[in-house]
Amino acid sequence: AQAGLMAPSELWSCLPCGLTQLLGAARGSQPKMKDTGAALIFLHGSGDSGEGIRNWLEQESNGTFVSSLRSAQIMTIFPDAPAMPYSLIGGLPQTVWFDRTAMAYEAPEDVPGIKRSVEQVDQEIEKLVQSGIPLSKIGVAGFSMGACLALHVGYGIGRYAGQLGLVASMSTFVAEGSCLDELARTRQGPPLFMAHGRDDRMIRLPWAEATHKRLVDAGLPVPKELLTFPELGHELCGQEVKLLLDFILPHLASQ
Fold it and tell me: Is the model's pTM score more than 0.90?
């Protein structure tokens, strides 16, 4: 989807993030535990599905995203957000990780919704740990709303916050008054991949830059500069997905 086609940012929330309206709403992929020593949990954006974001990553990597990780014995898990009333589309059902009352940096966050979805991801992490995968070999990544949730899982209220192998965040922001900030100051890790499109008209670049600065100020192992891509809207691109893979592999692959 091209960001310039709709001016009011609220209208974006009623569309599946990126191209996934073409991909259907199949249920999230289920992992196979055998012969894996690490795992990546990838969280989709609003209105999307686990299968949708998996297909999008595959499209942007010429079909190599999942196989590259599998070759390094890293399983991929793509959970589905629940369908729930979403305020930005008048309370109609939408697959979202939490509610938004406005698409704005200063808007209050839905703390109960974030807690509920963090618990859903924590349960996925717990299953992986019980299967024998150490926390240091589990990463959480996401796009848009899923990326915001990944930050909460990795640095905020998640049961395993500060203990995971990595967090990756693309095209997102964390609300100005978030509960994340105070908790993030108590974490010493994990390393973060963070990227954003310079032409994103849904989640404005200044919101991402402000979020990045807050994470740096919290003392987290964050790159000094936010990785940005010219002429990229609220979407993924091949170069970004390649750099994401280059980040994931050395942190999660078996040595």
Answer: no
